[in-house]
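Appendix B, example 12.
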Amino acid sequence: MRRRLGSRSVWLLSLAAVLAVAVAVLLQDPARSTAPLDPDNPGGTGLRALARVLDQTHDVTTARTADSLAETDPDAGTVVVVVQPDQLGPSTVQRLRDDAGDATVVLLDPGQRALGLFHLDTDTLSVGGETLESGCASERWGGLELEVATGTAFPADGCFEGNEGRHVLVERPDGLVLFGAATALSNDQILAAENAAVGLRLLGQGDRVVFYVPDLADLTAEDAASAGPLLPEWIVPGLLLLFFAGMALVLWRGRRFGALAVEPLPVRVRATEAVQSRGRLYQRANDRAHAAQALRGAAVRSARRALGLGRAEPEEVTHAVAARTGRSYEDVHALLVGATPPATDAELTHLAGALAALEKEVRTP
């Protein structure tokens, strides 16, 4: 009986542990991202705080592919918020226009690439570190202030004027909205100034909010972007100026060298100068072995000519020289072939003198 109770208690404890793990898994946050401006990013750069507030009064959905956006079936009461619009391509922009229909499309921080894909003016200016007043007649934005840490102002009429008549918020008649201060809506900055009110009025215009996070996997081969639209306008005149400056530098420095000096060829160098120069090189390099080899090679060649041996090997020359001079084979072999290079300059000088004496004996009848 006790064994049955003990076995049953073990099973009950195991079942309780499994249920606890299951509950923990179900209660944990299933959606978590670290991408900037992502509605599922709880970090400082994410938009989760704003998305959670909108979810209290609106139907909030996140679409992470073009197919998912199409499945949400946006209508006139939907606000499609495009996160990281610079990841769009020509094909996905066309799909966005077709699938959005009459919905309001909000581009958060569009760069020059995204503006070019929507055929908009890319002459933007940077803004940041300041608080901007709405400065427009729209009742929706009247009296609001937006604190911008970093952002972009667009060359069109709108609200929250930045520099040189450009505005951070531009609402176009075709339902496209440009908002260049998306970082003001992030979790870190949403409570600054009246950023929260701006965010709720911007994204809460309709009954539904669809956060569209473009996926690079939706791009096709035809979406490959050329570098032209991404380059600043000053790049071409800057390269031309650099080219002409380089040419001027070449002409200026090239004239200082003057005409080329003409010297008759071939240039003849005296044998003594060549020998002395080579000797100085050997001495500077401290290469006694190479110098000794050169001396022995010259002595062997001289002995070949004197004895008419042609291209005989050094061993044959050694035997002939020993027979001619009467010296022993070992003495002549040590001079002409040698196994150990000179260790000092004195030994090298002694070897040179001994070879010179041997050559003199070979030439003497």
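The radius of gyration is 45 Å. The CA atoms of residues 8 and 34 lie 46 Å apart.
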